Amino acid sequence: MAQRKIFAGIKLRALRETEKLTQAEFANRLDISTSYVNQLENNQRPVTASIMLGLAETFNVDVTTLLADKSDRLIVDLKEIFADPLFAEMPLGLQELKNLATNTPDAAHAFLRLYEAYRKSNERMAGVDDVLMREHSGNLQTSYEEVRDFFHYADNYIDELDRAAEELSAEAGLDDHQKLERLVAYCAEVHELGVEFVLPNKRDMIRQFDRTRRIIRINASLEKPTQFFQLANQLALLEQTSVINDILENANFKRDEARAICRIGLGNYFAGALLMPYAAFLKEAEIVRYDIEVLAQRFGASLEQVAHRLSTLQRPQHRGIPFFFARVDQAGTITKRHSATAFQFARFGGACPLWNVHRAFEAPTEIIRQRAETPDGKRYLCLAWINEKRAGGFRQPTRRYAYALGCEITHADKLIYSEDLDIGETAAFEPIGISCRICERRNCTQRSVPPIAAEISISPDERSVVPYDIV
Fold first, then answer.
1. Which of 307, 254, 247 is nearest to 145 (CA)?
2. Is residue 393 scored above 70 in pLDDT?
3. What's the whole-model pTM score?
4. 8-41 b/e (C-beta count within 10 Å ≥ 16 → b)
C-alpha cells in the first residue's frame, strides 16, 4: 500500500505565526527555500520525513500531530451534505472535498452550519418538528449540536482540564479504592464543603448543591463510581472555574445556552479524568490489554466511564489507541458520541442497522465483538454491551443503554478482545455504513431508505428483500 502523503499547511502556518517568524525566517530555520515554505503552507507540497525531522529538532514539534488528520472527519461530513439532491447539478469529487477541508477548514465548518440551518428551516416550513419552531430564526443549529461539534473537533481531549485533574488526583491521594471517601475529605478540608448521601424525595434527583449552606447532596442509591463522578463534577465547577471560563470563551459559542451545556460537559470531562488519571490509566490499560472490565475494577469505575475515558487518551507525545465511543438508547438514538478515529457517526438520520451496538440488547450479559468495514475501506474492531441505570427501588426509573467502543484494526492486536480473532481474514469483516441515506452499498438487505444521491429502479414484476434497485 502506498504511503499516505501528509499535508499540514494550516498547522505549519499556525506554528510559524506562534513563533512570530516570517516565511523567510521559518525557511532559514528549516534550511529550505522560502518558496518551499509557501508551497507547504498552501498544501501544494506534502510534508516529507526530513521536514518532520527538522520540525521536531528545531521547534520541538510532536510529529504525530501532523500525522493525525482531523480533516478526515470533516470530509465525511461534507460528503454527507453534498449527497443531498440539492447539489445534484454541481457534484464535488473526493479531491475537491479534501481541498475544501484541508485548505479552508473554517469555511468548511461554516458551510456545515449553513446546511444545518437550511435543512432545519425546511423542516420547520414542513411542520416536521414542533421543537424547532421555537428556535430563534437566526440560529438553527441547536445548542447541543454546537457542543457536540466542539468536542468532536477537539478529538474529545481537553488538555488543561486533563492535567489539572491528574495533579489533583495525586494531591488528594486518589490512588486506591477509597477514592470517594478521600474526595469527600478533600472537599471538607480545602473548600469547607459538606457532602451528604441522601435518599431524595424527588425520584430523579442525582445531585444538588446548596450554595448557602455549602452542602453537596448526592443520591445514596447510586453506585459508587457514579457518586464519585457527580462529586468530582461539582468540584470541577467550583475549583476549575477560570480554566473552564477560558475554554468557553475561546469556543465562541453563539448562545449562552450552549455555554451552559458545555460547562456541564467540561465538568464531566474533569470528573472522568480525576477518576482515571491520564498516565496511570494509560499505563494500566496497556498492561491489561485494554480489558475494560479489569480497568473498571482497578479504578473503581463503571464500564461506561472506562470506555469514555479510553476515547480521550489523545495527549500530545503520550497518546493511547484512538478509540470511538457511543451510547445508544433502546430506540436506536445515539445519545452520546465521541471519536478519536476516522469512524463517523451520522449527523442526520439513524445509525447503520448492521452495527453490532444494536445487537447488544439481545445479549445483556456479553461483550459482543464485531470486525467491521466502513465504505471508505477502513476496518475496525467494535465492542458492544448494555447496562441498566437504576435509581433504586421498585418504582424508581430504569434506563437501558447499549454502548459501543472500537478502534481501527491496525491497533486490534493490542486489545485482549482480538486474541482468538483472525484480523487478517477479509471475509470476516461485516460491511457497515454511517447511515442508509448516504451509504453507497448496493447489496445491503437491511437498507431502510435509498441513498439520497442515487436513483432507484422499481419493477412491478420483481420483488426482492429491498423493494428497489439502486441505479
1. 254
2. no
3. 0.71
4. bbbbbbebbeeeebebeebbebbebeeeebeebb
- Contacts of 64 by beta carbon, 8 Å cutoff, 6+ apart: 316, 317, 319
Q: 412: which DSSP letter?
A: G
Are 296 and 303 contacting, i.e. CB atoms less than 8 angstroms apart? yes
Which whole-number Å values give the CA distances from 65 to 7, 308, 314, in the listed order?
Answer: 12, 22, 10
Q: Does residue 259 contact residue 384 with C-beta atoms inside 8 Å?
A: no
Alpha-carbon distance of 294 to 301, in angstroms, equals 10
β-sheet bridge partners, residue 388: 400
Tell me, what amino acid is at 250?
A: N
Q: From the centroid of its chain, how far is CA 377?
A: 20
Q: Decide: 412 and 423 in contact? Cβ < 8 Å.
A: yes
What are the pLDDT digits (tens) for 378-391?
899 999 999 887 66
Kindly report the number of other CB atoms within 10 A of residue 4's CB atom: 9
Q: What are residue 215's phi and psi, to 5 degrees? A: -125, 130
Measured in whole angstroms, the distance separating CA 317 from the mean position of its chain's CA atoms is 20
What whole-number distance in Å separates Cα of residue 277 and Cα of residue 120? 41
Torsion angles phi and psi, residue 24, rounded to 5:
-65, -40
Kindly report the CA angle at 380 between 375 and 381, in degrees rounded to 5? Answer: 145
* Residue 412 near residue 428 (C-beta atoms within 8 A): no
So what's the pLDDT on residue 122? 59
Cell triple for 204: 430523579
Cell output for 333: 438514538
Shortest CA distance to 197 belongs to which of 147, 189, 205? 205
- With 0-12 / 13-18 / 19 or more C-beta atoms within 10 angstroms meaning exposed / middle / buried, residue 274 is buried
Buried b vs exposed e over 144-157: b needs ≥16 C-beta within 10 Å? ebbbbbbbbebbbb
- 436-447 pLDDT tens trace: 877 778 788 888
Residue 386 zone, left/alpha/beta (φ > 0; ψ -120 to 50; rest): beta
Place of cell 441522601: 198
> Residue 438 in contact with residue 452, Cβ under 8 Å?
yes
Neighbours of 233 (CB within 10 A): 20
- How many CA within 13 A on the CB side of residue 19? 19
